[in-house]
Amino acid sequence: MTDIFSLTTDLYQNDTINDTLDIIDITPNRTMSVEKTWLHPWTFLVALKTTVMALIIIAALFGNLLVIVSVMRHRKLRVITNYFVVSLALADMLVAIWAMCFNFSVEVTGGYWIFGYFMCDVWNSLDVYFSTASILHLCCISVDRYYAIVQPLDYPLIMTNGRLIVMLAIVWCSPALMSFLPIFMGWYTTVEHTAFRKKNPDVCLFVVNRTYSVISSSVSFWVPGMVMILMYYRIYVEADRQERMLYRSKVAAALLNKHLQINGISAGLTTLRHSLDASLEAEKNNASASDPGTSSKMRRERKAARTLGIIVSAFLACWLPFFLWYVISAICGTQLCHSPPWVVTLVFWVGYFNSALNPLIYAYFNREFRVAFKKTLQGCCQMTSKLLCRRWRRRREPISYSNASSEIHGNHLGREVGFGPGPRCSYNISEGEIVNLQSEAVI
């Protein structure tokens, strides 16, 4: 009996040891597999990609909304050029809403399209439409700056409100001919891709044929880009000419001043120098010397041209990789010029990033926009504070009583009963209610 008991005990201990060894062997492997799953490089890259895309969408929405609100609130910014800027900000907001959000959903779902066959055409059409509209806005801005810098006297006659409306109408209507019409008619793609889409409605790819790629890229990017580069080159040449003329006028005035001092002529020197500067300034601006605001206006125009030149340069840097890939892949074909999915995602979102970059350029390089942004954000903070104060008052209304014998402020009451400091809102309450509230707070 003892031998049977000892044998049973030994078997139990051996089974327990074996189970323990199994747990020791298996549990670390399971833990390591879970850690490997969570620390997999692809998981980290997907999380990083999703975060960056979400930040770009949020920055594009709120940054361009800040541009629109700032121009509408501040009268100083209500000039013809800034109406183009407001329209550009609206186009960039629509890019964020319609193009970026749909692309973000595809990236999050791993390439799966959940909106159906028809909405795929809608997404591709809106993407092409708003991107083209954004480029054409920048082209109009460059033309506007060209006339403001090179022909300042004729600028009020050239850029009138009527022409502003016509240009904006062309900018918003003409991209529809390159987006909605060819895409919904099926002219933009190949026969093979059309058959593939009918068999796979859960995949939304923008595959174009050679003819459409050349025509659409020329209308949307290459021709407007060349116009912008030409306009800003002319603006640069004119600004350089004005700077050299200003430098020569200063050198001539300094030499004349030195010559008069050497010859002992000091009477009327200040008057002579001012008259010389006025004549040279009038020659530089091709305007009459009687206009006292011409010099400051020209300085503002040059600063605006520099800011908008930086915007155009940033735009070309963001969208040039996409259009190079777009044309090369369409001409070579998918078999000869196959692009990995990460390359396609990168060129798309680098182009989308331009919509979030423009407001940052306005705030950093343009002092007037910087001041307007600051005032607009301060106004939003004040409005938010007022709304929170009203909400705090409504939440405290059930315990608000009036008594002619005592008055205390809401902040003091909040600190006494444990509500926190709260907004600066006043309340009237009786002493008996204070005692009751304090006893309840202690309990």
Automatic annotation (TrEMBL):
GO terms for molecular function: octopamine receptor activity. GO terms for biological process: adenylate cyclase-activating adrenergic receptor signaling pathway; positive regulation of MAPK cascade. Its main location: membrane. The chain crosses the membrane at residues 42-71, 83-106, 126-143, 164-188, 219-237, 307-328, 340-365. Keywords: Cell membrane, G-protein coupled receptor, Glycoprotein, Membrane, Receptor, Transducer, Transmembrane, Transmembrane helix. The keyword Glycoprotein applies. InterPro entries: GPCR_Rhodpsn, GPCR_Rhodpsn_7TM. Signal peptide: none annotated. PROSITE patterns: G_PROTEIN_RECEP_F1_1, G_PROTEIN_RECEP_F1_2. It comes from the Eukaryota. The keyword S-adenosyl-L-methionine does not apply. Pfam families: 7tm_1. CDD domains: 7tmA_DmOct-betaAR-like. It is found in: Cell membrane. GO terms for cellular component: plasma membrane. Residues 63-362 form the G-protein coupled receptors family 1 profile domain. It is a multi-pass membrane protein. Belongs to the G-protein coupled receptor 1 family. This is Octopamine receptor beta-2R. It comes from Sitophilus oryzae (Rice weevil).
